[in-house]
Amino acid sequence: MIPISTPDLCDRYGEQLQIAEPVFRHYGGLRRFGGPIATVRCFEDNSKVGEMLRASGKGRILVVDGGGSRRRSLLGDKLGQLAVDNGWQALVIYGCLRDVEALAELPLAILALGSTPRNTDKRGAGQVGVAVELARLRLRPGDY
Fold it and tell me: How do residues 52-94 score in pLDDT, each as one tens digit?
């Protein structure tokens, strides 16, 4: 089976689709992904990201609304490996990550705004399973 491309989906479904602003860069070892999403909203604290990635991903995509912050990393090599180990298909981070070289080796699709070496705060702050708005998208858990 030949995978369908994003432009083909746009041709077929037109205005029924939401298209993200072109703000994301690929960082993971995979570049194609699709499926249901789970969501986290957090700001400069990846505690809830870690909680989600410790659970079974079941092929889902974790969308993290980090408020677009470029000051702190919301994902690094350890959480990336945890995502792989627990069956997550992809991570979309509306914020930054670190450990770029290690993340590029993982069999995981990862999109983020950029990278920063500064680690995250750990305060346990954030929300899981909420609607998020980022990159001109409105997303809810379970959306594709």
Answer: 999 999 999 999 999 999 999 999 999 999 999 999 999 999 9
Q: How far apart are CA 39 and CA 91, in angstroms?
A: 10
Quick: pLDDT tens for 10-40. Answer: 899 999 999 999 999 999 999 999 999 999 9
Q: Quick one: DSSP state of residue 83?
A: H
CA-CA distance, 73 to 121, in Å (whole number)? 9
Contact criterion met (CB below 8 Å) for 78 and 68: no
Residue-by-residue DSSP string for 81-122: HHHHHTT--EEEEEEEE--HHHHHTSSSEEEEEEE-S---B-
CA–CA gap between residue 79 and residue 56 (Å, rounded): 13
Contact status, residue 69 vs residue 43, Cβ threshold 8 Å? yes
Helices and strands, counts by H and E, the chain: 4, 8
From the list 63, 66, 55, the residue with the least C-alpha distance to 109 is: 63
